[in-house]
Amino acid sequence: MIPVCKPYLPNRTKLDAYIDSIYQSCWLTNNGPLHQQLERRLKDYLGVEHLLLVANGTLAIQIALKALNITKAVHTTPFSFVATSSAVAWEGADCVYTDICPKSWNLDPNALAASEQTKGLLATHVFGNPCKTHDIERFAKEHSVRTVYDGAHAFGSKLSSSENLWLAGDASIGSLHATKLFHSVEGGFIVFKQSEHYELAKQLINFGIGQNHVPQHVGINAKMSEFHAAAGLAVLDDIDEILADRQRVYFRYKEQLCKYLQFQDISAGVQYNAAYVPVVFPSEEVLLKVSNALSNKQVFARRYFYPSLNSLNFFSSTDYQCPNSESISTRVLCLPTYFGLEDSDIDAICQTIISTIE
Predict the structure, then answer these.
(1) Mean pLDDT for the chain?
(2) CA-based nearest residue to 160, from 240, 272, 257
(3) What distance in Å separates the CA atoms of residue 246 and residue 265, rounded to the nearest whole number?
(4) pTM for this structure?
């Protein structure tokens, strides 16, 4: 069987060494030594100053929205994992859906339109492909809108060799779920531009407790445990090897399938992490035919992100039409990709796809 993804399991000797330190310190959570170490290493690796680890990526979005006081109406993309919209709705805000670019599949800056209710903008770096942040930031500045980027898929991607993806907007979030290229089994992080939002968020994730252990705000428990930090550190030790292997897998697929299927358009200069291998078929009918053919060979691809979130009636009080997202979501399929996927398996998957659609 070939699954759509397989979590990276770090070297047991390295992982055990981190876990041994937990037993020695008897510190399991509440900003322990491994938590602090992982935060420091991620700050260095990503080139950021105000990074905060949290329990998962969904909480990361919620805390970012809360710290930035983003309420009421939030412009966001309908083509993303459901957690992007769920976090907005959970905070009591209304999702204002903006259609996507039919080539990059990211939120289309040219389709943005502000209203008096607009308080924030939440854009996703879809499948790790960076948004056109300059255009989005121009809109945000013109309309005094706070901007958060959902970088759940974007670890290892860069806007350019000299421009840091994680420093765009007022905040960016990352997911460290087990399915991600870099993970801590469960976890997430937030990068804030301003120290005041970072300091507030540090209190919000710890029940709102501030100085002298006195609650200062309505808060929540969103802290990462030491065991999750241990897993994150062990995986981070191997991150360069992981990224290189994802590139190998992605480009082997693309070399064989680009003549038959649409791949995501990656802007010139962008350093793409190859976290996923999404392909778009000419029709949903063809997609289903290929998916069944793969399944019959014990190869399991997955439909991301279906359906388009604007078609669900519980995230927004308005009926938004997003034809590009609605079209792409019915025709996109993510092919298996994970560390160590054999070239021969990739070739067999490609051959099945090609023979099915020809």
Answers:
(1) 96
(2) 272
(3) 17
(4) 0.96
